[in-house]
């Protein structure tokens, strides 16, 4: 959404508390229950002017967009974290939330636009200071719609809010958010980057372990660990390779690349194998979009377990500065015989992988990766004749254990003689 009609003007926190307290005296007849600190609490519902609540800036869904804004505008990393009561941060958060409310997978904006009036049985959730714990996207959409036509959307001027009257620390707020995310029907999932960042935040800032986070998010410990490892790897890639630390916009469209990469890496026992899989992903990441939409295809081929040593051999042949292990005895029938080799009988040495450069938007490095693909394809073609001959021999040997019904004997004999004749012709023609 290019134009934003609503301009946030933060109501002073003391005034917000007073407004909420006064409205609690004339609260609506019903309450809404929420799980808080492992028990269900009935929260009173009040009608508040849409200007009163403030957005929750430590919002998991918006982390990646916040980070992009911070980097683009050269703000401090805690720009949003420390800006709860500031107009500037609240206004930017509003824009982010309005955009998210129009996500095609869960278009809250469109739904509210057609409903005209807000449902009282689906209140927003705020704390006693007026901070929105749940319903940030809905609030942003409501504010925009109301400003677009105050007469038509008069029903949005005051909206029902359930109030948690008890004091809430950061951990409790996060537990509530996660619980609502898990149970909410037709929920809009976090973006993959936001989810990774959220897990990282809960581990580092809140001190939660994988089991606790998994329970809160409805995911397994293994899934939580994978997402945490993924954001760690991506952070390293953004810092060292893209040279734009924390700018997740650089990789937001690389979800499949990174998820496939970490899954492949986790299946490997050897550190060198894992490092090479990650190194391939890093090279593709900084050159993404330059392979004619072949990013995932290239990654899939180069990261395959059976191809890793061949890929490393090829890369070491192209980067002559790399110090490798001693050369092995060359097989004259090996299509890669001209390359400097890593010892086949040994595991991939992480120190060799570490020497492979990652060059951002580099035409030469892209050509090297494509060359590795071609080499692998050639090797596959060269082995095809061997594979077919092995398969044919196996089938012939299997025939010895089979019955030969009288009705088929003549036909079988003819086929076998044809096989002999054609095999002899191949031997002659190919000079075997």
Tell me, briefly, the overall form: elongated
Order of the strands making up the biggest sheet = 1-2-5-3-4
Strand content: 5-15%
Element order: H for helix, E for strand? HEEHHHEEHEHHHHHHHHHHH
Q: Characterize the main sheet.
A: 5 strands, mixed
Query: How many E-type strands?
Result: 5
Show unreliable segments.
326-330, 338-345
Cα-atom Rg, whole angstroms? Answer: 31 Å
Description:
With 432 residues, the chain is α+β, with helices and mostly antiparallel strands. The chain has helices at 13-25, 63-73, 87-101, 108-115, 136-148, 170-183, 192-204, 210-217, 221-242, 255-266, 271-286, 295-302, 308-318, 350-355, 363-399, 409-429; strands spanning 31-36, 39-49, 124-127, 132-134, 158-164. It is built from 16 helices and 5 strands. A 5-stranded mixed sheet has the order 1-2-5-3-4, with helices on both faces. A hairpin with a 4-residue loop joins strand 3 and strand 4 (132-134). Helix 9 (221-242) packs across helix 10. It is elongated, with a radius of gyration of 31 Å. The model is unreliable at 326-330 and 338-345 (pLDDT under 50).
């Amino acid at each position: 959404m290019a134009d934003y009609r609503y301009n946030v003007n933060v109501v002073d926190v003391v005034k917000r508390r007073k407004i909420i307290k006064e409205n609690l005296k004339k609260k609506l007849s019903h309450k809404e229950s929420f799980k808080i600190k492992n028990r269900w609490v009935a929260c009173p519902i009040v009608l508040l002017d849409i200007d009163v609540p403030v957005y929750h800036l430590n919002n998991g869904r918006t982390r990646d967009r916040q980070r992009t804004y911070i980097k683009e505008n050269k703000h401090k990393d805690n720009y949003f974290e420390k800006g709860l009561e500031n107009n500037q941060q609240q206004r930017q958060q509003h824009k982010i939330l309005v955009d998210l409310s129009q996500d095609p997978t869960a278009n809250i904006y469109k739904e509210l636009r057609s409903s005209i009036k807000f449902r009282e049985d689906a209140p927003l959730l705020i704390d006693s200071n007026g901070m929105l714990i749940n319903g940030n996207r809905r609030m942003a959409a409501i504010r925009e719609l109301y400003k677009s036509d105050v007469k038509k959307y008069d029903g949005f001027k005051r909206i029902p809010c359930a109030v948690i009257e008890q004091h809430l620390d950061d951990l409790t707020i996060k537990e509530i958010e996660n619980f609502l995310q898990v149970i909410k029907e037709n929920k809009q999932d976090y973006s993959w980057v936001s989810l990774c960042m959220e897990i990282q935040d809960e581990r580092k800032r809140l001190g939660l372990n994988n089991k606790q986070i998994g329970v809160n998010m409805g995911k397994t410990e293994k899934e939580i660990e994978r997402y945490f490892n993924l954001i760690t790897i991506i952070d390293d890639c953004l810092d060292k390779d893209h040279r734009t630390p924390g700018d997740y916009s650089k990789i937001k469209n690389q979800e499949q690349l990174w998820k496939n990469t970490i899954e492949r890496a986790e299946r490997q026992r050897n550190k060198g194998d894992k490092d090479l899989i990650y190194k391939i992903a890093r090279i593709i990441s900084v050159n993404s979009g330059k392979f004619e939409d072949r990013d995932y295809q290239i990654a899939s081929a180069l990261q395959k377990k059976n191809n890793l040593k061949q890929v490393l051999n090829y890369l070491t042949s192209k980067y002559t500065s790399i110090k490798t292990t001693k050369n092995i005895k060359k097989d004259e029938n090996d299509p890669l015989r001209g390359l400097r080799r890593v010892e086949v009988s040994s595991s991939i040495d992480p120190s060799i992988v570490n020497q492979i450069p990652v060059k951002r938007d580099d035409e030469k490095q892209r050509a090297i990766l494509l060359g590795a693909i071609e080499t692998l394809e050639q090797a596959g073609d060269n082995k095809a004749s061997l594979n077919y001959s092995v398969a044919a021999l196996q089938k012939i040997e299997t025939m010895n254990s089979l019955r030969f019904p009288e009705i088929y004997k003549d036909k079988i004999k003819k086929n076998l003689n044809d096989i002999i004749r054609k095999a002899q012709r191949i031997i002659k023609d190919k000079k075997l």
